[in-house]
Amino acid sequence: MKRIGLTFVVLIAIIFLGHFAGRGTRVSDARAENRSQISPPSGVRDFTLKDLEGHGEESLGQFKGKIVLVNFWATWCGPCRVEIPWLMALQEKYGRQGFTVLGVAMDEEGKSAVAPFIQKERFKLGTNSQPVNYPILIGNDDVAEKFGGLVGLPTTILISQDGRRVKRIDGLLSYDEVDKTIQSLLETSAR
């Protein structure tokens, strides 16, 4: 009888831990949706960040009229590395239709950590391995605060053509979900 009781307790513990383990890497969609609904109608405040070459700066304002997916990430972040090929696929699929991904690297070491990573790493896109195909910017806490702060990495914010925050995803994103949202935004703007 004690063995059955112990087995039952272990089974309940496994179910409980399994349920909450998934929550550690990704915030629920309902919570992410609530965050996007709280944002002011005016959208996201503009920011300016340095590119990897140090030649210039990119600002959110220069992408006005485009759908922008801002992805906060770091070179040491495992889920961030998982997302990179998905973001590259979205950039390739929608880039000519008024969409861009902006990768905002949040490594404490800044350019000295990010530039070698971007130069060296290749990611599977289709049948080929390629370098990242979207702009990578060096982020900072001030820019993260303009998006409501970061709970963790990756954090992704999808911004519509009119500058409105449409979706915020804390943790690993769902490629299919983001793909459908981008398609919907493009269809809405085509009407």
What's the helix and strand layout?
Elements: H1 2-21, H2 29-38, E1 48-50, E2 57-59, E3 67-73, H3 78-94, E4 99-105, H4 111-120, E5 123-125, E6 128-130, E7 136-138, H5 141-146, E8 155-159, E9 165-170, H6 175-190
Parallel strand pairs: 3-4, 4-7
Antiparallel strand pairs: 1-2, 3-8, 5-6, 8-9
List key phrases describing it:
191 residues; alpha/beta; Glutaredoxin; two-stranded antiparallel sheet; 9 strands
Question: What does this molecule look like?
Answer:
Helix content is 41%, strand content 21%. It has a 5-stranded mixed β-sheet with strand order 7-4-3-8-9. A two-stranded antiparallel ribbon has the order 1-2. The termini are far apart. With 191 residues, it is an alpha/beta fold. It has one domain (2-190): 3-Layer(aba) Sandwich (Glutaredoxin). Strand 3 (67-73), helix 3 (78-94) and strand 4 (99-105) form a beta-alpha-beta unit. Residues 13-42 have low confidence and may be disordered.
Provide a concise account of the structure shown.
With 191 residues, the chain is an alpha/beta fold. Helices cover 41% and strands 21% of the residues.
